[in-house]
Amino acid sequence: MKKSVVFLLCLVGLTACAESYNIETYRVFGPEHPGQYKHPASITQLANGDLYIAYYGGSSEYGDDTAVYGCRLTVGETQWAEPKVIANTPDRGEGNPVVWQAPDGRVWLFYVNRYGETWSNARVKGKISDDGAQTWSDSFMLNFEEGTMVRGQPIVLSNGDYLLPMYYETGGDREMTASTTCSYFMRYNPKTKVWTETNRIKSPMGNLQAQVVQLSDKNLIAYIRRGGDFLPTDHGYMLRCESRDGGYTWSDAVETKFLNPNSAVDFIKLRNGHLLLVYNDSMNDRTPLTVAVSMDDDKTYPYRRDIAGGDNSFAYPYAIETRDGKIHIIYTTNSRTTIMHAAFDEYAIIGSPPEP
User: What pTM does this model have?
Assistant: First the structure.
């Protein structure tokens, strides 16, 4: 009898260990759902545990028929609900929605509204929901400057302020960004309800779509997509910058050793303090999609694993850690018509078994 119990416990342990190494990948939905073009998407966990995705969809990237859609995965369900339009400006294209629930329960939606032929004609709008993304407020302008855009999730700083990644896209060309394209942040004080801007982050080729983490009260770092064009290159590297005063001011961006084919990255801090970076490990192609983990505050990233690869593109990763410790990454593929969802434990990347 004792041997049977021990054997059963061993089987349970092996099953748990095996599950910890799995990366479960699901197709959320594709062109059969509203907004055939789907690129990019964002995800947040709501207070009741539901997962909520926002994406923009329509006939094409620059279609004036594009709108922002929201959809929900209710706790206990396996199928996402039918997407619904949550932001739509008549005769103007929308883009790059970021959905995020703040610590006070308010859900924020930031998105881009295009006023011309390219994203350098865009401005950033917002909405809020105080009922768990069931209903949304009227839209408001977050930034009136032409060329401003949003793409990455905010973080809550140690003093309680919110820090929202922004960028200023220039050039007026659909196939490249000018060297004056640059990242910055908008800082929100939830007590005074006031947004303020940081300085612009400069780099020789330009940069966009910074993703930020806070290491200490004073020290923050951000990894950033390089600017430029999409032609073959042997010099496509991700950029990095830092703040030493709690996120008020930022250094210029410098090249790292991480490859970057002019594509979006994501960068989050896990609750255990480890840093997780998601990127395309290539200079010229948006494949593979790779996850790297640092356990020493950004000094090294010895743990890496491809979570998607092959002859396709896997773009605009967006990562969160849910309250159960699971990591969720969504990204688009199949010529920007399909949203995918990968879910896994950190052990799937670092290769260490769970604690007994």
Answer: 0.94
